[in-house]
Structure formats: structure tokens, C-alpha cells
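Sequence in, structure out. First:
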Amino acid sequence: MSVIPWSLRLIVFVLSVTLMEVNAQIPLPAKKYSKSVLLIGGTSHLGNGEILKNSAIGIRNGKIDLVLTSIDIRLDTSKYDTIIHFEGKHLYPSFIAPNSRLGLVEIDAVRASRDFDDVGNFNPHVRSLTAFNTESRITSTIRSNGVLLAQVSPKGGIISGASSVFELEGWNWEDAVLKIDDGIHLNWPSRYLKSNLNDKKKADKSDTEYLEKVELIRDFFFKSRAYQKASFHLESNLRYEAMKQIFRKEAKVYVHANRIQEILDAIYFFDQFDLNIVLVGANDAWLAADLLKDRDIPIILRRVHSLPMHEDDDIDLPFKLPKILSEKGLLVALENSGSMEAMGTRNLPFYAGTACQYGVKKEDALSMITLNTAKILGVESQVGSIEVGKDATLFISEGDALDMKTNKILVAFVAGKSIDLDNPQKALYRKYRAKYKEDVH
């Protein structure tokens, strides 16, 4: 058994114990660590609203096997091969990025590096699973802020395809996948275009086009349901086959809608089907909060760091939405959407930090990017909080991980494997500091 006092220099030793190798460009995947680890002395934020000060968290065989306050009981530390003291530091479960293009795009302006948008309007058979690229240079920059898990989702069309949940660590998608095909993504049509509001002819045309698209969705879902009920098919239909898991409630329908009329239309549309629905985007969800609560529909809320969608909205509305919706009793998670989405995922913890400044309790805000997200994605039995029996996917931060000034990830584990937190941006930082002969350590 080795006892490791905390210092930045000795972190290198911890990583070497776990047989990690440093690659300045794309870090090598971690090797499985068979020895047990005890993290002791710091403050643990469990992700379920609880905080343990002077905590003791045990890791064995990739799972969490001990969660308690070390002052409550005399610990037998001899049961653990490695002990890490993290007094004055903070331990968190992994942040989880839902509705992300991580691993599906490298450079938005280069078509060959974009693998998230397929041809056609109805593509439930298209899967992010086999397209996920573990070699992405973006991923390591995201891990450096504590985002170690992501729901990787296709985009485009009306039904974009099926997403899967991945650990951001591994040689290939088979290594990284945590949950296969957790749901399909439906982009509900937009009812109004802003430029059409003052032109009745254009507005009428836009409305007609909207209703036609909704009818296409209705037709597809009714035909898909009829296909599932048939006991024999002369020919298999890949699209309808892919909908089986939806009608069996083995996967969810992630409905992307923002405006109130679109949200209401989508809710009433799915009253015709017994399906598990999640609302994504949800800018106007506060106007339909009671209806969403009645239908028990959870929300993945669009990027908090945004401008209001409507010109007469409160300028602070995007910042206030997490509090407004959570106070209505809705299950709320936070996402990063918009341009530069994949790279911007690193800001996910700071969206939760902003929610704190606008009335959400800090541990509840943490849950919005950990346990709440895990519940919505259906992986709460494995990840999302620091609890005995769950995967040891967690990290230690120098300070408050929801504050951009103190978020400094020192050590991170994915399923009990200590991962390399280096990335190309850090490598470039060291390179150009060295050029001007500054201290790079």
C-alpha cells in the first residue's frame, strides 16, 4: 500500500502508477487498473444533492465500493492499494453532455470531417454508434473540464437518427460505449419564420408548410406502429425496424422544439402514442410547464449562455430558465447547442454555475449536469452520482468545478481507470511558453 500526499508533482506519480502514457496530441487510452484506490480527506459532491466533507471514496474493479465521511468511522486503509489524500480539493461525478456532436465532427467547415447529418428526412436507422470517433482532438479538451461522458447525437432532417451514450475514453466505439441506441432524435418543424410575421402571404405559406411536415411525421409514426403490430413482413423496412425499440419503450424520443406552439403541438401529437418523450431545446417550456409536468416529460434545456429567442423576452430569461422549470417540479438537464457546439461542450459546467447565480441551489445545479442527465438518458444505475455500486467515473478539482476561475481538474477516473488530462491546447500552451523561456511547470 502506498500513501500519496497531495502535490501537483506527485500527480505525475499517480498517473505513472496507473501505467498512463502521455501523448501531447491525442492522449493514449488508459489501461485497466486492477489495484484499488482510496480517495480521502476532501469534499465530495455526490451529484444527488448531498455533500460529504472529509470524505472517503473507495474504488475497486472499476466501481465505487465505499462512500462515507471518514470521521464517522475508523477506516481500515490497508484494504486499498493506493491512497490519495485530497484535502482542500473537491470530488465530483463526471459531468454528462447530452445531445452532443462530440466524435461526429472535427472541423465544421470541412465536409469530410462532418459525420452527423445524413441524407433524407426520416432516418431512425442512422446510428451515431459506429460513426463515433474516439480519436477526435476535441474530446481531450472537453475532458479537461470534467466532461467524461456524452450522449452523441446525429443532427439534420426530421428524424436525425439514434444517439448512444459514450465514455470519452477508449480505443474505439466498442470500448467507449456505455449505452447503445438510447433514443431517436425528432426535429419538430418550426411554425413561423421571423421574416414572415409581417407578410400575411408568406406567413400563410409558412403555416401550410408546417402543417404538411407535421402530417408527414404523423404518417411516419402511424405506419411505424402498424409495422410493429404486423406479425409477418414480406420485406423488411430498415426505418420501421429501427422504430421497434421506440414502441417497445426500450428507447426514447428526443423531441427538439423551442417555440411554445411547437412544444404544445408536439405534446398533443404524442398523446396518440404510448412513448417515452424528452423535450430538447425547450426555450418556451416555461409557458407549458404545468402541461409538461402533467405528462411527466423531462427537459434537456438549450444552452444557458444564449440571447433570448424572442425580442420581448426578459433579457435574463435563458439564465433563469433552469430555476423556473425546476421549481415547477420538472426534471431538467443542461446541454450545449448552437455553433461550435462540440468544442463549446467544455463550458457545460459553467452553464450550471450560471444557473446557480440565478437562483438554483449549487448541488441542484450540479445534478442538472450529472444525475438528472443520467436519469433522462437511462444510465442512472451506472453513472451520474457517487454511490456504491456505480462506475467510478469521477474527478478531483482544485476548486469549485462550476466556477471557471477555480475549475482545475487534477485527476480523473473513467470506470476506475485514471485518464490522461493532457490535450493539444495544453501542449501548444507549453510550447509557446517555452519559446519565450518561461517556466512551463
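Second:
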Amino acid sequence: MRTLSIPALALTALSLTAAPQVRAQAGPGTYSSVRAINLARNTAVKLNGGLTVYRPAACMFNTDFSGGSCLVQTNSDGYLYKFLGGAPGWQQLGLPATTETELLISPDGRTVVNLLYNGAPR
């Protein structure tokens, strides 16, 4: 069996090509924005009885870094989401929403800062 050795200089060069730094501040286009929308969506699902009885609006499944149309505001306080939800299939069947949820998620997308509203659509 033949063993290849990589010179120390080559190893140093490899270590310099680390993954790009991820921005931790709030804003569309960051990895924290994907974490934030996932956390907001999953929090609403848990609050409203689980996926067997509740589904958030389709905009809450948009994880393409844009934040989706449910993202109301992004600033130094974090991500503010406001969205509707209802029984499974409500949106596809054209039924009215039964729940409105408004959540503030931390700038890093890891914490629910404040549940502002979770109730009948206003």
C-alpha cells in the first residue's frame, strides 16, 4: 500500500480556504433568516396543536433567503413575522384562515423573543 504525504505548507494552504463566514445579524439573505423562518413556523405549529390540526400559510415555507411575504420587518431587534394559518389544506381549498400569529425572532434566528399574537385573524 502506498502512502502519500502532504507537505505542511499544503496543509496550511488548505486551512486558509475555510467556509465563508456567515453573517449573524438579522436580514434577508442570511443563514439566520432561514433559521428564523423555520423557528417561527415550527413555533406556530406547536402553539396551534401540531400539523394534524394546523398549517401555517405557504409563505412560511419560503426558505430561499428572501424572508417570504410573511416577514413584516427586519431590524436590530430581529425578524418580525405575521402570518395566517388554519386546518390542513385551508389555503389550497380557498378556506378562510382560523388563526393569525405574530412572532419576533432574535437576530440570529435561534430564539423566540416575543409572541405578540396568536388568535383569531384580526
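Remark: The first strand starts at residue 55 and ends at 56.
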